Automatic annotation (TrEMBL):
This is rRNA-processing protein EFG1-like. Residues 160-203 are annotated as: Disordered. It comes from the Eukaryota. Residues 9-92 form a coiled coil. Residues 167-181 have a biased composition (Acidic residues). The keyword Coiled coil applies. Keywords: Coiled coil. It comes from Nicotiana tabacum. The lineage of its organism: Eukaryota, Viridiplantae, Streptophyta, Embryophyta, Tracheophyta. Residues 194-203 have a biased composition (Basic and acidic residues).
Length: 203
């Protein structure tokens, strides 16, 4: 009976040992599960923190993008305004250049006209002086008894024509007086010539 009891006791002890081993294994597994749960909880908190940080970054990027979009719109509007102003300035400048160019061309044309008029007038003044000198020379010869009435008349006409062409509009009245004086001088010379023709000529 005692042996049976010992045997049963031995079995119970073995069973208890097994149960303890199983309990220990369960404890180890529990610790592992607890560690895994703690790790998962930590990872979850880390993930939440990362998610929150990502959301904050996304919000910041969104706000920055909106700010950049507004800044871009402002820059585009400013550039459009400056471009319009530049085009207006260019148009005004082109108009001013056209006006200045037209004025310069008109001034150049006027200068050319004045120069041409001056050259023409100088030419006829020279011709007038030549005719006047020739007339005076012919009158001197005529006064000495040579009949140069026809030549004097022609050169007087040429002198009057050259004098008229040499004068400008402001001197028309003076030129008329000069022409009258020339005509009178020519007539006087003809009268003197007629008188001299009737006078005897010494040999």
């Amino acid at each position: 009976m005692a042996n049976i009891s010992v045997s049963q006791l031995q079995q119970k002890l073995e069973l208890i040992g097994k149960l303890r081993e199983e309990v220990d294994e369960i404890k180890v597994e529990s610790l592992k599960w607890k560690e895994n749960m703690d790790r998962l909880a930590a990872e979850r908190e880390t993930a939440r923190a990362q998610l929150s940080s990502t959301k904050s970054q996304l919000q910041s990027l969104k706000e920055k993008s909106l700010a950049q979009a507004r800044e871009k719109e402002e820059i585009e509007a400013r550039l459009a305004s400056e471009l319009a102003e530049a085009e207006k300035t260019k148009a005004d400048t082109d108009a001013m250049v056209a006006i200045y160019r037209a004025d310069a061309e008109a001034a150049q044309f006027h200068t050319s006209e004045v120069a041409n008029t001056a050259r023409t007038r100088a030419h006829w003044i020279a011709e007038f002086a030549k005719c006047q000198t020739r007339r005076e020379t012919l009158e001197e010869i005529h006064a000495r008894g040579f009949d140069l009435s026809e030549e004097i008349t022609k050169v007087t006409e040429l002198e009057a024509e050259a004098g008229a062409l040499a004068s400008d509009d402001d001197d028309d009245d003076d030129n008329d007086d000069d022409d009258d004086d020339g005509s009178k001088s020519g007539s006087q010379s003809e009268e003197e010539h007629d008188v001299e023709k009737t006078a005897p000529v010494d040999d």
